[in-house]
Amino acid sequence: MDGATVYVGISAVYEAAKIAGDMGFLILGVDGVQTNGAHVFLMIDYIADLSGSNDDRPWSEKASATVEFFKDIPQEWLGGPQFVEFVLLGEDEARPSWP
User: Residue 99: which pLDDT band, with cuts at 50, 70 and 90?
Assistant: First the structure.
């Protein structure tokens, strides 16, 4: 843990996704993790890649669609990760910076 990473409890993943969506973020993915109290371990069987959602649709439509993905995750990932780490993209970050 580097101090800049925020981990969300698996039971709160949908609520956290809704907050991220309401704040205008597109969720590109999520990594499921476990901890023993001293270390955080990535669980490779619990990684969701939603980067394909960054398509030509309006930004708000894309953001809403990624939020809905998380509705069933707490049940589907039962017995898996304790926490998740979101990979987010803000609309201002999505614009290419090259000419």
Answer: very low
Contacts 24+ apart (CB under 8 A), 2-5: 5/85
Cα separation, 89 vs 51, in Å, equals 10
CA dist., res. 86 & res. 12, Å (int)? 12
Please tell me the CATH code under which domain 8-92 is placed.
3.30.190.30
pTM comes to: 0.83
Residues 34-77: tens digit of each pLDDT: 999 999 999 999 999 998 888 888 988 888 888 989 999 999 99
- The ranges assigned to domains in the chain are 8-92
The H-or-E segment that residue 11 falls in is: none
Encoded tokens for 84? 């998740």
Q: How far apart are CA 97 and CA 37, in angstroms?
A: 40
